Amino acid sequence: MAPTPHHLQPILTETLLDPFSSPVTCIYGLHSGIVQIYTCGADLPYQVSFLQAAMKFMSTPRTDAERLQLRTHLFQCHCDARNTALVQLHHPLPPGVTASDIYELTLFYICKMLQKLIVGFDAKGKDVKKRWPTRYEDICPLRSSVPVYCDALVGWGADGVHGSACFTLLGAAAWVWPELRTYVLATPRIFALATTHLEQALTRIPTQNASVLYSPRFSTAVFACAADFFHVLAGTGPLATDTMLAPPGIMPRMYQVALRMQAHLAMGPGDAAVACEWFNAVCRQNGSAFVPGGAAPPPPKDMEHGYMEHVWGLLVQIRNTKCSIPGCTSATASQVSRVCGACGTARYCSKAHQHAAWNARPHPHKALCARIQDLRRALHMEDAQAWTRLIHDTEAERCSLQFRRLCTLHDVKPMFGRAILVAVGYPGIPCE
């Protein structure tokens, strides 16, 4: 019988607190145990000490030599064969997966686990059920200055090849920590480094087959940098996207990455869809559109759930677009956008564009606006502030879950989602 996460917690905690000399487990056991905890849920009460150790492990400043030493140490198996729990953690590696792949996946799962809990952190909140984090000190356990903390996280990916998972954690921390967010947005080298990781990811695709999306060194870099970092920061303010793409050379590099990514990403739920949204935002700034897979996305197959999943992604994309006029490159688009007062979703760079979109062909906003209002009434979300919080707070996973729960709670029929998809001319959705 495999060990439960409850038994794994002290083993993994000891390894993370003393990674250089701990004889507890190697990278294979560490990866297997963390995946089990990630699957079972990191918010269980006995996981707090593990989460504290994981956060300290990621945020401790280290030199390049120390990180190399850490990799070398974890790659060597020094596990006690008499420990049944450790032996059961050593699963055979899938064909073609190397120790370096396992190392990258381990870092990604650690950061993803921390991200899921950090994005729900509210310094002013009074959630008595929340066990971690409950204060800013939990996110920065060493109480480092903002620059030192940021450099400690970014250092994992400093070579532009390994450790891209650090951007998942950096994006989550910047989302809830205003001082860190301000520092990150004012530091162009971080955006350049994340872009380098995306460029490197494109060199790790062995074929043109989209099924290789989940090859470890490709998917971790794309999900961490595009979905969890760039897209998260883009949602922190109307000028965030422009700020990240403004440093010399970043926009042309990112646009080329987006163009090349089209053949390897497919629109759908999860991190891949969020990455597509970021690349679409980049393409829109260049007057084009991101077409994942080189073709229009397939229509939803599940009538009861598929429509609403696609509608959620569509609403997020519309709300995060500075101007809903296709191909708008107006200079005023960089200013604070106007939001449609009726649907509370579509944004425009100017009053003129807002008026033009109302009856624009072939998909006038007039039709979409009415359908979104129907959906809001069905969800009992007529209050403008409540709707804005739900649809604009796109990077916090809780909002996607909240949307699905609201649909279930109020028994929202698929026809509401289908009507919205028809209004925007979503490929594969018949008009009748």
TrEMBL record:
Keyword Zinc-finger: yes
Protein name (record): MYND-type domain-containing protein
The MYND-type domain, residue ranges: 328-369
Keywords: Metal-binding, Zinc, Zinc-finger
InterPro entries according to UniProt: Znf_MYND
Example of a GO MF term: zinc ion binding
Database matches in SUPFAM superfamilies: HIT/MYND zinc finger-like (SSF144232)
Domain of life: Eukaryota
